[in-house]
């Protein structure tokens, strides 16, 4: 028999990556299409996506590359970066990530593919890790309540300003910022202050609060400790004076320095903010890094962002959960105190585990070593006749070199070291965990001094430390056993594995969350982020050292612009909420530049995600809610009435497309035209872009601005609740108002745009290679096919579940977009079974729940994505159908309403081995689905009592005695 010849070109091409990214193969797609009632993906697309918005032309993107080709291209880009030893400081420092954390957290899909812990029973591992992080922050800052991380130090400081204004005694007045704060922090604070009418005054507070400022009233003060210059100052007098004026005081503090220095809490501060980057998280050209905030007890219930608390489960045993969730933006909307709806969970876990790995003694030893190098560096400079500006410092030395700063910095660069040019006369030199004798010698050589590293021994014998005795820390911290128990790598490895096993992530099974797009985060996409050429770059390194990274950034911006139909993209916003804010600030600046500052009304449909309204208020706008029709569309009559009513003050309409209800609205182009005719702009929330890529472009069907979620549509993993990237994309007329950055002008438009929205010029640049790789691997055809299969998957699930649960919203032909909403309310009314009961019962079946009660209370929103294969989709559908049968058994009275598998779910292994008083069997409780006994996921706790946790707020590691009890 003759074997058919396969052409060499086809053999060389191999299996395209898209075939591995997209779960259902051709045969599975055919079966799904038959269920939905269409003959092809193109036929389904033509029926589901309104013709008025469909793109006629294909995306102009490079042809899809293989994994080996894409990785080779990324290697070439990485090779164009120069990883010098950066001693720039300014909140970014070299650090050594313990390999056990690098391999078993950052590179482990059990950690990086997890979702936000809204289902706490299956999130106990990452919640414990976050509680560790909160404990580290609370202990080191001396303030008892810390959050589960914020986006970076600059935005944390801006959140502290908003908190101070909200809770303080002074209703008006200014926000006073010390001139020695990090320059990027000052500018982020200014960006955030201006739209809300807050005046920021920057002054040298070394001599106290200026009298003329005190007379005007001060509602808040921000101090840096140690300062950007490196100076370690005793802030007690300034803090005391600020309190006399009724101000709330925030201190931006270095966590490593706080292992040696008196805590901000002991200095009298009310709030502490900062970054945990130097706790084992690579610089990554600026991010992602976990910012932090801690507060006095009185402000605990006003913290922005997320807070992990200790509650109890149905057995009365301690269990972790997100506390105070009523503060979340989807509930408070325009009354929200912040638009932060995510955290930097993966990075907070790394930082917390760095503290677990080293313990308090190890952290203090790293701090002492870092300080010692700085002290010896200063001593060597002084010995050579160089003036060192400050006598007291921790890790950063400022040298005065009249007129020579540029010359010395250039000599240092030639020796492989980056210094900070503060101005023509001053240089900043920061030591860190990675500093060694060679770096000291290189710096001395750049100053023209004796560069013999052997000098260090002599200097060490004669040089005292440079920390003031009055500020040395004398209290204990990190006393909980978790920070003392895991000194060996064996113990640490098992601890990380134990926590991972308590969680449910994408490496276990499907996470069908509507609005969240939990899709494949391919290993080939993830691999480059740990390469030192990407991970080791300082965000303020000279541009010529980041040529490869800057090329990657430009290419990603251009490709995202092509996909969305916009003209320009900024990658700076490091969360979707920040992309929203940046887009609205651009709209606001555009109207003001056109002489129409009175355009301040933001129209928002009632179904919109809550961050839309929160972001609008932060951008200085007034929210006017537009009704949503019974079919899930924006109520066109109400919209047009409100456009007419606010015609002269209309700034922008914010709308999600496809709608938050999971349907393609037919008249979106007409809606955009009506807003434009009234002089407004159109903001299309890009949260649901996974239904549009390759099929339609917001920038072409009428939108002016969108934010994108790279952690959804473009494959950056959710990481347990962060990191995220939320680029903002705009049409040309809004491009001058994109974010800029004071230390990297190339990161934004000429003139600086609206100012920085994040601390780093390109935000969370360290994870941008993931999305670059996704686009390079998929190509235009693969991206279009992925979108089509995502829409097919949602319609397949909807059709299979429709006989058992009503599908609440559909478009023409009964079709949905990339997600569907099923209505549980009739079942709840008839049987008492709630969406919570279904969500918890799905755990027993081996699934994470869909999105609960959003956008409509009492519903479940399901998004299968393109990455789940047909067997997994069927397994989920069969689980939901089986749960429907269980609900019927409650409805008929076979099982009591207060004692049935749904109300008691989830069921733990321990529960099954004890007494069994229930009217259903142990097998029905634990093994409701066939075939999963060997691979059964066992939840570590029973259902958690959230209300108890909110009433009894415990947000750091409880005493061991509590667990024994």
Automatic annotation (TrEMBL):
Q: Which residues get modified to N6-(pyridoxal phosphate)lysine?
A: 712
Sorted alphabetically, the Gene Ontology BP terms of this entry are: glycine decarboxylation via glycine cleavage system
This protein's source sits in the domain of life called Bacteria
> Where's the Glycine dehydrogenase C-terminal domain?
786-907
Which reactions appear under catalytic activity for this entry?
N(6)-[(R)-lipoyl]-L-lysyl-[glycine-cleavage complex H protein] + glycine + H(+) = N(6)-[(R)-S(8)-aminomethyldihydrolipoyl]-L-lysyl-[glycine-cleavage complex H protein] + CO2
Q: Name one GO cellular component term.
A: cytosol
Protein keywords: Oxidoreductase, Pyridoxal phosphate
Q: What class of enzyme is it?
A: oxidoreductase
What does this protein need as cofactor? pyridoxal 5'-phosphate
Please report the stretch or stretches of sequence annotated as the Glycine cleavage system P-protein N-terminal domain: 20-446, 463-740
Query: Do you know which HAMAP family this protein is assigned to?
Result: GcvP (MF_00711)
Q: How does it assemble?
A: The glycine cleavage system is composed of four proteins: P, T, L and H.
NCBIfam families documented for this protein: gcvP (TIGR00461), PRK04366.1 (NF003346)
Q: Describe the family membership recorded for this protein in Swiss-Prot or TrEMBL.
A: Belongs to the GcvP family.
In Swiss-Prot or TrEMBL terms, this protein is called Glycine dehydrogenase (decarboxylating)
Tell me the organism.
Streptomyces hainanensis
Lineage of producing organism: Bacteria, Bacillati, Actinomycetota, Actinomycetes, Kitasatosporales
């Amino acid at each position: 028999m003759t074997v058919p010849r396969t052409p060499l070109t086809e053999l060389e091409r191999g299996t395209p990556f898209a075939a591995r990214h997209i779960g259902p193969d051709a045969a599975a797609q055919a079966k799904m299409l038959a269920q939905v009632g269409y003959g092809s993906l193109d036929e389904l697309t033509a029926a589901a996506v309104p013709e008025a918005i469909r793109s006629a032309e294909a995306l102009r993107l490079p042809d899809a590359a293989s994994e080996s080709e894409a990785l080779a291209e990324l290697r070439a880009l990485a090779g164009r970066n120069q990883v010098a030893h950066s001693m720039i400081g300014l909140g970014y420092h070299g650090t050594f990530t313990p390999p056990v954390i690098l391999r078993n957290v950052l590179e482990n899909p059990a950690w990086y593919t997890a979702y936000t812990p809204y289902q706490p029973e299956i999130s106990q591992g990452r919640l414990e890790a976050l509680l560790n992080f909160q404990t580290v922050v609370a202990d080191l800052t001396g303030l008892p309540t810390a959050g589960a991380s914020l986006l970076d130090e600059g935005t944390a400081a801006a959140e502290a300003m908003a908190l101070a204004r909200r809770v303080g005694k002074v209703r008006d007045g200014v926000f006073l910022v010390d001139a020695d704060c990090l320059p990027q922090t000052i500018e982020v604070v200014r960006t955030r202050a201006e739209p809300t009418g807050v005046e920021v005054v920057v002054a040298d507070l070394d001599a106290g609060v200026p009298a003329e400022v005190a007379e005007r009233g001060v509602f808040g003060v921000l101090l840096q400790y140690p300062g950007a210059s490196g100076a370690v100052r005793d802030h007690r007098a300034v803090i005391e004076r600020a309190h006399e004026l009724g101000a709330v005081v925030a201190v931006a503090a270095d966590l490593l320095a706080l292992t040696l220095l008196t805590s901000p809490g002991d200095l009298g501060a009310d709030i502490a903010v900062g970054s945990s980057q130097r706790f084992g998280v690579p610089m990554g050209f600026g991010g992602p890094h976990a910012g932090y905030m801690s507060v006095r007890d009185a402000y605990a219930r006003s913290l922005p962002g997320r807070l992990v608390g200790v509650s109890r489960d149905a057995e009365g045993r301690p269990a972790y959960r997100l506390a105070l969730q009523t503060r979340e933006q989807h509930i408070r909307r325009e009354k929200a105190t912040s638009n932060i709806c995510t955290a930097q969970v993966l990075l907070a876990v790394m930082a917390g585990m760095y503290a677990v790995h080293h313990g308090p003694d190890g952290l203090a030893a790293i701090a002492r070593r870092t300080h010692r190098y700085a002290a010896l560096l200063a001593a060597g400079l002084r010995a050579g006749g160089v003036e060192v500006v400050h006598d007291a410092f921790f890790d950063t030395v400022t040298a005065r070199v009249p007129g020579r700063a540029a010359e010395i910095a250039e000599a240092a660069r030639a020796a492989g070291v980056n210094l900070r040019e503060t101005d023509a006369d001053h240089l900043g030199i920061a030591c860190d965990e990675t500093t060694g004798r060679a770096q000291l010698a290189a710096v001395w050589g750049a100053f023209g001094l004796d560069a013999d590293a052997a000098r260090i021994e002599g200097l060490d014998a004669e040089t005292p430390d440079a920390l003031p005795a009055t500020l040395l820390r004398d209290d204990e911290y990190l006393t909980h056993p978790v920070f003392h128990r895991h000194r060996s790598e064996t113990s640490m490895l098992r601890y990380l594995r134990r926590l991972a096993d308590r969680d449910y992530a994408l490496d276990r099974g499907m996470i069908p969350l509507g609005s969240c797009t939990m899709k494949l985060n391919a290993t080939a996409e993830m691999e480059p982020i740990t390469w030192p050429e990407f991970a080791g770059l300082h965000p303020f390194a000279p541009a010529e050292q980041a040529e490869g990274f800057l090329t990657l950034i430009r290419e990603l911006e251009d490709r995202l612009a092509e996909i969305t139909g916009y003209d320009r993209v900024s990658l700076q916003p490091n969360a979707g909420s920040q992309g929203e804010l940046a887009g609205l600030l651009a709209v606001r600046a555009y109207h003001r530049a056109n002489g129409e500052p009175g355009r301040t009304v933001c129209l928002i449909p009632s179904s919109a995600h809550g961050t839309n309204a929160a972001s609008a208020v932060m951008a200085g706008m007034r929210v006017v809610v537009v009704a949503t029709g019974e079919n899930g569309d924006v109520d066109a009559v109400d919209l047009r009435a409100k456009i007419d009513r606010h015609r002269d003050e209309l700034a922008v309409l914010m709308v999600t497309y496809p709608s938050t209800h999971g349907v393609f609205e037919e008249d979106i182009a007409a809606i955009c035209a009506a807003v434009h005719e009234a002089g407004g702009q159109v903001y299309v929330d890009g949260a649901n872009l996974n239904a549009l890529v390759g099929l339609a472009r917001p920038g072409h069907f009428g939108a002016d601005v969108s934010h994108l979620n790279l952690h959804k549509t473009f494959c950056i993993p959710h990481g347990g609740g962060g990191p995220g990237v939320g680029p903002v994309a705009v049409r040309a007329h809004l491009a001058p108002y994109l974010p800029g950055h004071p230390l990297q002008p190339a990161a934004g438009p000429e003139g600086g745009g609206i100012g920085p929205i994040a601390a780093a010029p390109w935000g969370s640049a360290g994870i941008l290679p993931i999305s670059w790789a996704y686009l390079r691997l998929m190509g235009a055809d693969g991206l279009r096919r992925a979108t089509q299969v995502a829409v097919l998957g949602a319609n397949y699930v909807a059709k299979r579940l429709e006989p058992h649960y009503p599908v609440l919203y559909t478009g023409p032909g009964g079709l949905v977009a990339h997600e569907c909403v099923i209505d549980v309310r009739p079942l709840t009314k008839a049987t008492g079974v709630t969406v919570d009961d279904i969500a918890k019962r799905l755990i027993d079946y081996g699934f994470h729940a869909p999105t609960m009660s959003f956008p409509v209370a009492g519903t479940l929103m399901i998004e299968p994505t393109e990455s789940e294969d047909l067997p997994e989709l069927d397994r989920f559908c069969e689980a939901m159908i089986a749960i429907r049968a269980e609900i019927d058994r409650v409805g008929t009275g076979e099982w009591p309403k207060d004692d049935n598998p749904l109300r008691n779910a989830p069921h733990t292994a321990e529960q099954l081995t004890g007494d069994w008083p229930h009217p259903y069997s142990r097998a029905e409780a634990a093994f409701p689905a066939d075939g999963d006994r060997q691979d059964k996921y066992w939840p570590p706790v029973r259902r958690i009592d959230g209300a108890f946790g909110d009433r009894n707020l415990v947000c750091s590691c409880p005493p061991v005695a509590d667990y024994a009890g």
